[in-house]
Amino acid sequence: MAENLSLKAFVVLMKSSKTIQERVKQDIQSYGMKTSEFAILETLFHKGRQTVRQISEAVLINTGSITYVIDKLETKGLLEREHCKEDRRVVYIQITNKGTELMQEIFPKHQQVIEDLFEGVSKEDMRVVIETLKKVGLKA
Question: What is the CATH classification number for the domain harbouring 100?
């Protein structure tokens, strides 16, 4: 039977994705957070004020679940809500000073964990992986 490279690539992608996700989850948990909490704070930290819908699209969490996580982060004083003056249905979420200080402390450590995962992989190989995964993602 001939080797099916598509199936092999799929299996390798899925296994490595699972392993990477577990390592990232472990890192985030070491800061006393859940992955969803970290993802929301990271989005606000890097992109600034966002609507709930924008955050939901950025972190790939549905808006129903995201409200619960936002409530928890707001209770901890890490983010705050601001109602849009022009459209009361729109609520902006922004990171607080406390949230910014936290992310300034932990994000560089988190980034280092990710960089360590790619240690030994050349920049050219990373570019190839990025372009290849984009192609597969667009095809799907």
Answer: 1.10.10.10
Q: How far is CA 31 from CA 24, 37, 61, 115, in A?
A: 11, 11, 21, 18
Asked if residues 83 and 1 have their Cβ atoms less than 8 Å apart, the reply is no
Mean pLDDT for the stretch of residues 79-99: 91
Q: Which of 72, 73, 65, 63 is nearest to 94 (CA)?
A: 73
Total of domains in the chain: 1
Domain extent, residue 50, equals 22-109
Alpha carbon distance 30, 23 (integer Å): 11
The per-residue pLDDT for range 38-82, each reduced to its tens digit, is: 999 999 999 999 998 899 989 988 777 898 999 999 999 999 999
pLDDT bucket at 33, cuts 50 / 70 / 90: very high
Asked if the structure places residue 134 within a domain, the reply is no
